[in-house]
Amino acid sequence: MPVIMDKIVSLCKRRGFIYQSSEIYGGFGSCYDYGPIGVELKNNIKRVWWKAMVQDRADVVGLDSAVIMSPKVWEASGHLTAGFADELVECKKCHHRFKADELKDKTKCPDCGGKLTIPKKFNLMMQTYVGPVQDEAAKTYLRAETCQGIYVNFENVLDTMRMKIPFGIAQIGKAFRNEITPGNFTFRTREFEQMEMQYFIKPGDNDKYFDEWKKQRMDWYLNNLGIKKENLRFREHSKEELPHYARKAVDIEYNYPFGFKEFEGIHDRGDWDLSNHAKHSGKDFSYFDEKTKKKYIPNVVETSGGVDRSALVVLLDAYHEEKVRKETRVVLKLDKDLAPIKVAVLPLVRNKEEIVKKAKEVYEILKPHFMSMYDDTGSIGRLYRRQDEIGTPFCITIDFDTLEDKKVTVRDRDTMKQDRVAIDKLIDFLQDKLAKR
Fold first, then answer.
1. How many structural domains does the chain have?
2. For residue 2, what pLDDT is reported?
3. Tens digits of per-residue pLDDT, 158-202?
4. Residue 50 to residues 56, 101, 214, 267, 336: CA-CA distances in angstroms?
5. Is residue 168 located within the same domain as residue 243?
6. Could you give the CA distance from residue 178 to residue 372 in angstroms, rounded to a whole number?
7. Is 234 domain-assigned?
8. Is residue 1's pLDDT more than 70?
9. Non-local CB neighbours of 231 within 8 Å, separated by 6+ positions
10. Count of CB atoms situated within 10 Å of the CB of 335
11. pLDDT grade, residue 89 (50/70/90)?
12. Do 248 and 369 fall into the same domain?
């Protein structure tokens, strides 16, 4: 693994972003827990996405569907067939398993040189049971994608919200896949979170809306998450690699330390999903167009992004090392909307009761307005380094002068410039600095 990934993994553990799941028991492969700082980062990403996709639009509404659904949903969607399976090979000597399409030599094990088995289909659905008896009647699956919950609720949303085509339904939630080769930290895991939106359109308008959403999603990563343009690219799927449900697919890829890889997909799903659910359920999912007086099965353009992958992209893209007075400063130059902690309050001298008391008073003033942190557990230099490493835009220090002039020192994360600001003007000052331009 390249050095940068080692540094990110170390930073995530050291500063409370991400921990290995079940670590006290040796860890549980490909599963991670988000710590106090990491959960704030994830929540901010989801909040910014929801605002752009739902709050700021009149044509998209939200949903939160169940993780466990009838197994008939997955039969209808095609997930229980070969359409949602990877080809797996196993080494006869060391018994390591690999995806066949990722191997150059499909006869020899890349780890030990042993002979590989012939490829076999391996379904990615995560199986579970509902009820006290584990038999076929009780068998179901953890959802492999959030969008199927949207499709089975299409008619409910259409009726209750009085939506008119074109319109979208958005959802953020957990999904589960029995991945053969998870890895690269949180890039590929068996439990992950998705941000998906299904946009229902009139047949024939597919290319128009596909191109529109392709542009909007790229712009969102550039403008809302602040990802560097040179680290992003589109990659269109060839006909041979299209998912079973897609007529057309484009990935947004990021230049990870291990190469360009996908973290969001835009898909033209045609009428695959609604048609199949209509056929299997017996429900009529056709839409009556008031203008043309005709009925049709809506087509779908999907945007499907990963919350965990987006968080990893944000961390990688924001990570900086720079020389400051002959020392290396590690700083996460996060977009201010994404920063887990917006303001940190730090007493310059931690063993002076009056300074500590005033610092805590300032913290109490700020915390109803900003996600704030109070820290007096080290020297001021060490406290600055901690905040730089979690991407806190502003640090506020309280010193002896504060007791006299009722002003604090506000330090900017990126420029390290310091301003003296009156305590009674501090909220307005910070709100202005944190506002989107």
1. 2
2. 54
3. 999 999 999 999 999 999 998 877 789 999 999 999 999 999 999
4. 9, 35, 17, 19, 17
5. yes
6. 38
7. yes
8. no
9. 254, 255, 317
10. 20
11. confident
12. no
**Most distant CA atoms of the chain, gap in Å:** 79
Query: Considering 315, 349, 370, which residue would you say is the last residue of a domain?
Result: 315
> Do the beta carbons of residue 391 and residue 334 sit within 8 Å?
yes
Rg of the chain over CA atoms, in angstroms? 25
- Rounded alpha-carbon distances, angstroms, from residue 220 to 58, 171, 252, 307, 318: 18, 17, 11, 14, 16
CATH code, domain carrying 35 = 3.30.930.10
**Which among 280, 297, 315 is the end of a domain?**
315
Asked if the model's pLDDT at residue 418 lies above 70, the reply is yes
Place of tokens 């709100």: 431
**What does the pLDDT look like over 206-249, one tens digit per residue?**
999 999 999 999 999 999 999 999 999 999 999 988 988 899 99
Q: Are residues 389 and 298 in the same domain?
A: no
118: in domain: no
285 in the same domain as 168 = yes
Domain that holds residue 173: 3-70+139-315
pLDDT at 437 exceeding the cut of 80: no
Query: Are residue 293 and residue 214 in the same domain, yes or no?
Result: yes
- Per DSSP bridges, beta strands 259-270 and 287-289 are unpaired
Are 283 and 361 members of one domain? Answer: no
| CATH value at residue 365 | 3.40.50.800
Amino acid at 222: L
Q: Please check whether residue 212 lies inside any domain of the structure.
A: yes
Which of 343, 330, 265, 276 shows the shortest CA–CA distance to 301?
265
CA atoms within 13 A on the CB side of 171: 22
375 and 267 in a common domain = no
Residue 291 belongs to a domain: yes
User: Mean of the pLDDT values across residues 271-296?
Assistant: 95
**154 and 7 assigned to the same domain:** yes
